[in-house]
Amino acid sequence: MPHRVAVLALDGLLPFELGIPHRIFGRSLNPAPGNKGGKLYEVVTCSIRPPGPVRTDSDYAILVEHGPAALATADTVVIPASYELGPVFEEGRLTEELAAALALIRPGTRMVSICTGSYVLAAAGYLDGRPATTHWSSADHFQRLFPEVRVDPDVLFIDDGDVLTSAGVAAGIDLCLHLVRRDHGTAVANEIARRTVVPPHRDGGQAQYIHRPVPEPQFATTTAARAWALARLERPILLRDMAEQEAMSVRTFTRRFREEVGISPGQWLTQQRVERARQLLESTDLSIDQVARDAGFGTATSLRQHLQAALGVPPTVYRRTFRSSADAVS
Predict the structure, then answer these.
(1) Reported pTM
(2) DSSP-assigned letter for residue 86
(3) In this structure, what is the dihedral angle of CA atoms 177, 182, 184, 185, given to the nearest 10 degrees?
(4) What percent of the chain has pLDDT over 70?
(5) CB within 10 Å: which end of the chain, N or C, has fewer?
(6) Which of 273, 260, 278, 263 has its CA nearest to residue 326?
(7) Could you tell me which of 324, 330, 266, 320 has the C-alpha nearest to residue 296?
(8) Annotated catalytic residue: which of 20, 46, 77, 115?
(9) Residue 88 contacts residue 95 (beta carbons within 8 Å)
(10) What are phi and psi of 298, to 5 degrees?
C-alpha cells in the first residue's frame, strides 16, 4: 500500500506551502518492475474541523474534503506554515481544537513541518529536547518561546528521525525531496526533482538568504572552484587548491564560500562525496573499497564513518535498501 501522507491545513495557511507535499509526494511513482508506475505515496489534505472551507493568507479559501480523522490514518503528517496560529505563535500553547486533532495521530507517525509549522510541533511537545529549525526571521522568537528546543537557524532542514523540520517556504521542497530520497533512494528523488524543475539537492543553509544591513560588495564568486572540485572528488582536494581556482587568499575564499553556500568548504566537500557515494552504491556493482576511492573518501573505513554519520546506515545496508529502485529507474 502507498505510504499515506496527511497534510494539515490550518486557517491562514500559505497555498504555496500546502501544495509542496502534493507536488513532491504525489508525483512519486513506484519504479519497481510489475508496479506499472503505481504511486509510492497517497496524499490527503485535512482540517482540524469537519470538511469545509479553510482560510488562506490570500484572497481566497480552499475547500478541504477531509476532517481530523484523516490524521489517525497517516504514516506521515505534514504541517505547513500558517499566519493565524494565535496562541500557538503567541504563547506556545495549542488551542483545544488543534490539540484534539493532533491527539488522533498514532504513535510512531512521522511528523514534518514546513517553515513556521514548527510552532505547532513545538507546542505539541514533539520537539522537546530535539534539534529543529524554522524560518530564519522567526528563529529568535521560536527559541524564546520554546527554550527546550535546540534551534538551528542556519540550515534548510533538520532530519531527526521521526520528526523533521524545515526552514521557510522553498525549503519545504528540499525537505520533501529528502524524505523521498530517504524512503526510496537518490534515483527516485532525482527523477521527481527533474519533473518539478528544481535542484535535487541545494547546497548550504539559510545564512545565504539573511539580509545584512551593510552587505559587502561581491564581484567574485566561488562557482568555478566548486565546479573544479566536483570534477575531481576522487582526488585529495586542499582548501588552498580551491582558493587558487578563484585567485583568492584562503581566508578570503573561506569567507566568500560561507557567504554564498552557507557552510564551510570542508563541510561542502563531505556532502558532495556522500552524495557521490550514494549514487555509486545505488547504480553500480563496485566494491565498497572502490566506491570509497571514487567518492574521495580513500578507504572503506572512512566511507563507513561518513555514511553512518550522514545517513545512519553503513554502505552495505544502504546499497541493499536502495539498489533495486535505482536499477528499475535506470
Answers:
(1) 0.72
(2) T
(3) 90
(4) 89
(5) N
(6) 278
(7) 266
(8) 115
(9) yes
(10) 85, -60
Measured distance CA(317)–CA(260) in Å, rounded = 34
Say if residues 65 and 9 touch (Cβ distance below 8 Å). no
| Amino acid, single-letter form, for residue 291 | V
Residue 291 makes CB contacts below 8 A (sequence gap 6+) with 277, 280, 281, 284, 303, 315
Read off the DSSP letter of residue 215: P
Cβ(149)–Cβ(127) under 8 Å?
Answer: yes
Average pLDDT for residues 276-290, to the nearest whole number?
Answer: 91
Query: Could you tell me which of 250, 259, 264, 251 has the C-alpha nearest to residue 219?
Result: 259
pLDDT at position 205: 57
* Burial 157-185, CB ≥16 within 10 A → b, else e: bbbeeebbbbbbbbbbbbbbbbbbbbbbb
Assign 77 to helix, strand or coil: strand
**Catalytic site residue 176?**
no
Instruction: Note whether 8 and 48 are within 8 A (CB).
Output: yes
> What distances in angstroms separate CA 109 from CA 14, 55, 162, 297, 301, one per listed residue?
24, 26, 7, 35, 34
Supply 69's cell numbers: 480523522
Strand boundaries in 200-324, DSSP class E: none
Band (1; pLDDT cuts 50, 70, 90): confident
Contact call for residues 56 and 63 (beta carbons, < 8 A): no
